[in-house]
Amino acid sequence: MAPSARLAREFVREILTEGHNPVEHVEDFVLVVSELVTNAVRYGTEPGDSLLVVLDTDDDRTRVEVHDTARRLPQPKPHSDERGRGRGLHIVDALANWGTGTRPLGKYVWAEVEKL
């Protein structure tokens, strides 16, 4: 799992840094992508499955879609101080507008962050 999230972070940081985006925007978006990819690997794939990260950016906002092979849509977990994980969608929700969509062989989760 760690290599997938790391590679996604590096990919997004490289693309957004080339576009002269504000540092805050880049770092917020890198965190959003990291959380979505981690969730896709953890809950949306089986060993050997692939996932797809689609990045789109313009002057006003940056959007990502993370495609995986599971049909089950993500749901934020209830807050818990005892659980060491399960905060990913809460982080995404705090930083971005997000939602889901279905595709013939799975789903995608999208997130958009407006530029500062």
UniProtKB/TrEMBL annotation:
Organism: Streptomyces orinoci (Streptoverticillium orinoci)
Cross-referenced SUPFAM superfamilies: ATPase domain of HSP90 chaperone/DNA topoisomerase II/histidine kinase (SSF55874)
CDD domains linked to this entry: HATPase_RsbW-like (cd16936)
Domain (Histidine kinase/HSP90-like ATPase): residue spans on this chain: 5-97
Cross-referenced InterPro entries: Anti-sigma-factor_SerPK, HATPase_C_sf, HATPase_dom
Source organism superkingdom: Bacteria
Gene Ontology MF terms in the entry: ATP binding
UniProt keyword terms in alphabetical order: ATP-binding, Kinase, Nucleotide-binding, Serine/threonine-protein kinase, Transferase
Protein name per the record: ATP-binding protein
Key word ATP-binding present: yes
